[in-house]
Design a protein that fits this description.
Elements: E1 7-16, E2 21-23, H1 24-28, H2 35-42, E3 46-48, H3 56-71, E4 80-84, H4 95-103, E5 109-113, H5 119-132, E6 138-146, E7 164-174, E8 181-189, E9 197-199, H6 210-214, E10 220-222, H7 224-245, E11 255-258, H8 263-272, H9 284-287, H10 294-304, E12 313-320, E13 324-331
Parallel strand pairs: 4-5, 4-6, 11-12
Antiparallel strand pairs: 1-7, 2-3, 6-7, 8-13, 9-10, 12-13
The structure holds coenzyme A (COA).
């Protein structure tokens, strides 16, 4: 039996995409590929790439500041900041600690969550429980990645997919009767499938060495074909679970804001929920896969351009390395 004292309402959104761009034509000069191969298979035409010295914490801080501004919340009023990332500035300390200093979240407890492309939903799920139990009133949830730093730019099977960026939401305590807020979160994990999508070196099992650098073992490796199938199945299942836990039907969902991995995965998930693509928010053509940042970046865009309005039921759904997956239904507040 789940109980909550309060609702966690999304009071503001923000995002940041670096100005550097890399098109499919640019990639075709780096590896044996082409726009004709990439676009039909992925829906990606270009991606944003952070500059030298433009770090994950900088992008996270920029997105976080914008979310606080849009919520009308002062940095010192944030009590919890959770950053979802697999590309922190460095292994130690947590990226969220650097973000705290950059934004001035003087009174926040800060930690990171590592759940790859599902990271934003995992972070939202953790933070909303702090709010729902009354432990905190205001939380900042950020997804931020500098994927370009952990991508093998000589591997055409992965380097075409990823991009950099950050997105954020502010959660605020609301009364249960208020109507708006996070209605449900559902998550899942299957660690036995970890070898399908992983970075081998750079951790304690295989620290970075001359050998790992020369063999490119510190970059993302993926069995894309198998990942594709797991992504569609798990995203469809977990979306159904989150919708049911929210007490809704798929037809009650006004907007799907999915993880932006591949337009064909997004289309398959929308089809499984019998939802037309007009109700799906996609940024993939110009962002590629920004891992934990992809949902809050897409969300911020759809809120800013007026697509998502008060009273709308919005579904977030994601899948990533781990394997991990998650979904959340949010009723948009006023
Ligand atoms: C990566 C992905 C686009 C590859 O598409 P695919 O249809 O599965 O392609 P395959 O991996 O089966 O490769 C097909 C052929 O294209 C080639 N190929 C792979 N990448 C290529 C590229 N960038 N350009 C040109 N050819 C390429 C392969 O070498 C292979 O050639 P072969 O048949 O001669 O061996 C697709 O599998 C995918 O999107 N998977 C999900 C990835 C993902 O979203 N990961 C993150 C999850 S959160």
């Amino acid at each position: 039996m789940k109980t909550r004292l309060y609702r966690a309402a999304i009071a503001g959104t923000g995002s940041f995409l670096p100005s550097g761009r890399l098109t499919n034509d640019d990639l075709a000069k780096m590896v044996d590929t082409s726009d004709e191969w990439i676009f039909p298979r992925t829906g990606i035409r270009s991606r944003h790439i952070a500059g030298k010295g433009e770090n994950t914490s900088d992008m996270a801080a920029a997105a976080g500041r914008r979310a606080l501004e849009s919520a009308g919340v002062r940095p010192e009023d944030v009590q919890l900041a959770v950053v979802a990332t697999i590309s922190p500035d460095s292994p130690l300390p947590a990226c969220s600690c650097l973000v705290q200093t950059k934004i001035g979240l003087a009174n926040a407890t800060c930690f990171d969550i590592s759940a790859a492309c599902s990271g934003f939903i995992y972070a939202l799920d953790v933070a909303r429980q702090f709010v729902e139990t009354g432990a905190v009133e205001t939380a900042l949830v950020i997804g931020a990645e500098k994927m370009s730093a952990i991508t093998d730019w000589t591997d055409r099977t992965t380097c075409i997919l990823f991009g950099d960026g950050a997105g954020a939401v502010v959660l605020r305590r609301a009364e249960e009767e208020a109507g708006g807020g996070v209605l449900s979160c559902a998550t899942g994990t299957d660690g036995s499938l970890a070898p399908l999508l992983f970075i081998e070196a750079g951790g304690s099992a295989l620290p970075t060495s001359v050998e790992t650098l020369e063999a490119h073992r510190g970059f993302v490796k993926m069995d894309g074909h198998t990942i594709f199938k797991h992504a569609v199945r798990n995203m469809a299942n977990i979306a159904g679970k989150a919708i049911a836990e929210a007490g809704l039907k798929p037809s009650d969902i006004d907007w799907i804001v999915p993880h932006q991995a591949n337009i064909r995965i997004i289309q398959a998930v929308a089809k499984s929920l019998d939802t037309p693509m007009e109700k799906v928010v996609s940024t993939i053509e110009s962002t590629g896969n920004t891992t934990a940042a992809s949902i809050p970046v897409a969300l911020d865009l759809a809120v800013a351009d007026g697509r998502i309005k008060a009273g709308d039921n919005v579904l977030f759904v994601a899948f990533g390395a781990g394997l991990t997956w998650g979904a959340s239904v949010v009723r948009w507040g006023s």
